[in-house]
User: What shape does this take?
Amino acid sequence: MYKIKPAEFYDIAAQVGFYGLEKGGLTGKKDYVRKYWEDIVIKSIVRSPIEKLLERKGDIRVIDLGCGSGEGFELLTHVPVSQPLNCGKQCFVLSPEQISYTGVDISDSMIQQGRKNYETRNNVQFEQADLNKGFPLKDENPFDIYFSSYSSLSHLEPEKLQRLVEEVLNHAEPPAFIVFDLLGKYSPEWPKYWSENRTVLPYNMAYLIPPELRGKESIQWFDTCYWTPSMLYDLLEAAAEKTEACIQVVQCVDRSIFVGRHMETGLFEAPCFNYRYQINRFFDRDYRGELEYLNIDLDWCVKFGKLQPQVWARLQDYKEKWNCVINLVEALLHGNDDMVSYLIETTIPDISNELKFLTWLYRNAYRFPAVDFWASVMGPQIAVILRNIEMSLGPALGCGHGLLCVVEITN
Assistant: This one.
């Protein structure tokens, strides 16, 4: 056996990048908000359809429309079970062996990367195709879930998306589901678009570029579609009527209302707020979120609220609930027991119960054997509560970064 000296080993390890700077989840494509907020919302909305399908069959056929490098496979095979305390060793609703996954994307580079990522899985395949031309796998057996995530279908113009939906309805065999994830028209990230009659408008992904390098000359803009629920429902109704299919909307929710990627870029003529960065800090076990930056301010966009009163009322409602949580934590930190009691007693029951729990958690910090109770326990729980409030706001209005919709194709 050939042996090298320890110094040589570490030289090699450094050269291949094992000792580069550790990049946490505070920024970048796969930050903590993506993992513990946005992914969780998607997983929650697809759990019931998956459970319903598994009642009928042992495995599920999925096509991921606009799959990128296949991240939908990881999402769908890591959906938490509904009752984790009663499930024994089962952590996820759907195991990797129970899914037959086909990813479709226009980018050949993404397809090649996906094939590389999952080369050891025989139940995962990728096909390069342009969804602008319609549903690409008409000769394949029907799928159980026609899945999309992270705005992939917003790249299609409305008439192209309707054509795709019509061909999916013709291809599917009930019961089956379509999962839409589109850009919301009334996100506070781009209020300048609220009054636009056009659906197709400029977008960019400059949030992936470090702020210091985010000069206008380095930003690539491209057209995408921004959707409201009513626009999507009209499209679905037209597609169902044309194909004589029976469908029903199972759930439609707004995702990432105050933590959308562009809340911190200011590239759509809105102020920059670092709410997302601070929530990332809350989710991280090594950092303490900075409360002073987490009070939601909507005063700057009052004039836009007059354009969409229902949307404005939703944003105001969420703001009040969000700020109530932050104000309670500030009161706890400053030992202001009168304010703690006032906030608990004057809020609606659902929020009051969350405030009571946070108060109990804070006042029982000594029970938790954590080196940093705030970073390890309190901070993540605050972030989870803010996320769960968003998830409980009711049917979508198109005021989140993402508009998530699950449609069932029925008999």
Notes: The two ends are 66 Å apart (CA to CA). Residues 275-391 form one domain. The chain has two domains: 25-264+395-410, 275-391.
